[in-house]
Structure formats: structure tokens, C-alpha cells
């Protein structure tokens, strides 16, 4: 098996408790003046609302999570070979944790993983997500 390549993705997800969601959306839209638009959340059953924000070359997703008590930041990674990447990560104790947010109706090969500090990353096969 060849060594997989990892690259940074363009998506950052900020998981926000319901109680702080409206104020957070207003901060990016009204205070900072970013273009903020509400998007469909049918693919992510744990997210009740989401807004996207152009954040330089990245998209910042403001996800309302009704059962969260504190915010959390999730990052996206790409790899050219998801199977080889999962195997290499497993060798150092990093295993898929796809239960953190089941993704439905996506035409992509992905796994959720957590880095050693517990930060969630969406690991997606390049060109698919």
C-alpha cells in the first residue's frame, strides 16, 4: 500500500449551541460584514440550521447544534487514498469516529477522525467532497 497524501480542505465547521447561534450569525453578518447565507442541512441530522460564510479561500460553516453546551471547531482534510490513509492513521491509534455526525445522501468517501487533542476532522477522498 502506498503512503497517502494529506492536504488541507477548504471547509471549517463551527458547531454552535442553540442559545448562542443567532448572536454568532449576527456577529459574522452584521458586525464583521461577511456575506452570510443560510443553507440546507438535510445531509446532517445532528445540525438543525447552518449558515455559510466566505472566510478568505475557506468556507466557514456556522452549524446550530441543539444539544451542545459549548462551541466546537471542526476541520476538513483531503487524501488521495482514503483506505491507505485510514490504515496509516490506525497504526498510530487514530480510528474513524463516523458516529460523531452521520452524513446522509453524500456522494463521497469520507471518515470523521479526531486528532490526539480531540479536534474533529472530516477526512475526504480528494475530488469527492
TrEMBL record:
It holds the Pfam family Glyoxalase_6. Residues 9-126 form the VOC domain. Gene3D superfamilies: 2,3-Dihydroxybiphenyl 1,2-Dioxygenase, domain 1. This is VOC domain-containing protein. It comes from Spongiactinospora gelatinilytica.
Amino acid at each position: 500500500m502506498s503512503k497517502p497524501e494529506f492536504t488541507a480542505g477548504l471547509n471549517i465547521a463551527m458547531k454552535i449551541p442553540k442559545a448562542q447561534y443567532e448572536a454568532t450569525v449576527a456577529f459574522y453578518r452584521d458586525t464583521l460584514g461577511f456575506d452570510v447565507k443560510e443553507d440546507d442541512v438535510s445531509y446532517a441530522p445532528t445540525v438543525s440550521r447552518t449558515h455559510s460564510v466566505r472566510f478568505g479561500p475557506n468556507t466557514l460553516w456556522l452549524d446550530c447544534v441543539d444539544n451542545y453546551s459549548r462551541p466546537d471547531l471542526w476541520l476538513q482534510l483531503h487524501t488521495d487514498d482514503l483506505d491507505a490513509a485510514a490504515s496509516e492513521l490506525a497504526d498510530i491509534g487514530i480510528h474513524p469516529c463516523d458516529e460523531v455526525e452521520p452524513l446522509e445522501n453524500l456522494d463521497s468517501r469520507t471518515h470523521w477522525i479526531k486528532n490526539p487533542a480531540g479536534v474533529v476532522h472530516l477526512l475526504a477522498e480528494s475530488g469527492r467532497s
